[in-house]
Design goal:
Elements lengths: L2 H8 L6 H21 L4 H18 L4 H10 L1 H29 L1 H24 L17 H4 L29 H16 L3 H20 L5 H41 L3 H11 L32 H18 L1
Helix pairs in contact: 1-6, 1-10, 2-6, 4-5, 5-6, 5-8, 5-9, 6-8, 6-10, 8-9, 8-10
Length: 328
């Protein structure tokens, strides 16, 4: 992300948590609701999955079957992979967001916007291309549902990572693109860029790679799904700077509109407001072109004991006549 985008994002420092949490909840609710709406029919979703698999075979990039056989036949790999698929997606990403908000506030808006945009782009992919994961293809495809086989070890049932009895609330045909991979890549990029320890950078590299292996080994995604998830994150990154600029323009327009509305109250209201707030610092107008300062008296102004002495009055009158002559 370039310096201009960071300056735009850092304006106003980090958001307040009581405004940020509802925003993130709204985006996630839209994402979840969109997945439910865009379920698609099983026949079309299975057809899209088989097409992806044929393209992979044609390009000789189809490691899913071998990984799935390994994970299914080796519980020491398959069970931890199932737990990773069912939980890390919903734990690591929020944890990185919270870390950013707390420790890297100047970068928070930019990186949060990137994640949100990529998530919404992924939702468009689910809507336009409902895709069955490998585990839901016909048995002749050579895939086993690893999570179903090891479901007795966890909270999930036959519906991927959904808790038992809640499978109807998920979209089983949201394989393309893989946001498990996309979100893991985002976490890795953030930790690599803004982490300072060697352990953090090691995690930044290892986490996305592990998730890629997990989603294929558990037969929840194809390799092309993972590549599509990476592309979605790249597109979200490209759109982040324009989105931040648009948000800045909207905020600027709102500020200008508020200033105009405040100015429309008129000078009298402005004066009264200044007086009420104790900020009136300019001399008050006495007449069309005459101003007095604190402690100044108008010539021949009566004092508390009466009018000024005759000599003072004569001197004041002479000064007035001289000023009038100079003016003419």
């Amino acid at each position: 992300m370039d310096a201009a985008a960071r300056r735009l994002a850092a304006a106003g420092s980090r958001p307040r948590w009581w405004t940020e949490l509802p925003l993130l909840a709204l985006v996630y609710a839209a994402y979840s609701a969109g997945r439910l709406v865009a379920r698609g029919d099983a026949h079309a979703a299975a057809g899209h999955g088989e097409t992806i698999l044929r393209w992979e075979e044609l390009l000789r990039i189809d490691p899913e079957r071998a990984l799935n056989r390994l994970f299914t036949s080796t519980p020491a790999l398959g069970i931890p992979a199932d737990f990773a698929y069912a939980s890390l997606h919903y734990v690591i990403t929020p944890a990185v967001l919270i870390w950013l908000w707390h420790r890297r506030p100047a970068h928070y808006r930019t990186l949060r916007t990137w994640l949100m945009l990529a998530t919404l782009i992924g939702l468009i992919g689910f809507t336009l291309l409902p895709t069955a994961p490998p585990r839901l293809l016909d048995t002749g495809s050579g895939f086993a549902d690893t999570m179903a086989r090891f479901s007795s070890y966890g909270w999930w049932g036959d519906d991927a990572s959904a808790p038992r009895g809640l499978g109807g609330m998920t979209n089983q045909f949201a394989a393309m693109p893989s946001l498990h991979v996309g979100w893991a890549l985002w976490c890795g990029a953030v930790l690599w860029k803004h982490g300072r320890s060697r352990a953090t950078r090691t995690l930044a590299v290892a986490y996305p790679l592990v998730i890629v292996l997990v989603v294929m080994g558990t037969a929840n995604h194809y390799l092309l799904d993972a590549l599509a998830g990476t592309a979605v994150m790249g597109l979200g990154l490209l759109l982040t700077r324009p989105a931040l600029r648009l948000a800045e323009r909207v905020r600027g327009a709102g500020a200008v509109g508020g200033s105009v509305a405040a100015g429309a109250a008129g000078p009298a209201d402005g004066f009264l407001t200044a007086v009420a707030s104790g900020t009136a610092g300019t001399p008050a107008n006495v007449s069309g072109g005459c101003e007095t300062s604190a402690g100044e008296r108008i010539p021949r102004q009566p004092t508390r004991r009466g009018r000024p002495p005759a000599a003072a009055a004569a001197s004041a009158a002479a000064a007035d006549d001289g000023a009038a002559t100079a003016a003419r």
